[in-house]
Amino acid sequence: CSFFLVILSHTIEMKLTIGSLILLGVVKSLQFHPIRVHDVSRSDVLKGFLASSAVIAFPQQSVAYQGVYGMEIVTAKDAVLDDEAMGSKEVKTALTNFRKMYSSVKELKQSVASNDQYDVTAVIRKDFDPTFVRDTFNNLNPAFDKDTQKGTDRLQRAIIQDLLEVETAGKLSSGKPRSEKKIALVTDKLNKLEEGFGKLDAYFASASS
Length: 209
Description:
This protein is mainly α.
């Protein structure tokens, strides 16, 4: 009998030890590791916006967001603006800011056409701050119903992606001029970015500038 009691005692102690080790591992895995501000880049912020907007807009399909491109969406010509929302300060300001960004893209294209060594990245970082872009798009959304937002959300995400690509393509190497191949790439990315802004602006065709 005493033999079994000893075995039982050791078994209980072993289970307690294993349980403690497991608990310790869980606690360590949950330890908070603060993110330093300087570790977060512009591209991280923009990519985070892309990911979060997909989850918010399409929670059941966020992993396969490509499927949204095949969905029926309200086109710009069929879009109806919400008059009450369009009269709000937030939407008015957002539309003004959006069109300023659109104008900035057009001016940037002209600058590159005039000077193929133009500092594209500096303009992108100055005129297209990630938080500013995100807030502008978020404040535009109330102008449309949910069905229309499926189309505008797709365009907004495409613009964010194009901004990332323009900034990357436009970087100048120290002491090295932009090659013909790089110039063509930058021009192509800017054309695509301008096209994206134009498509989204078309949804506000009936709104005054």
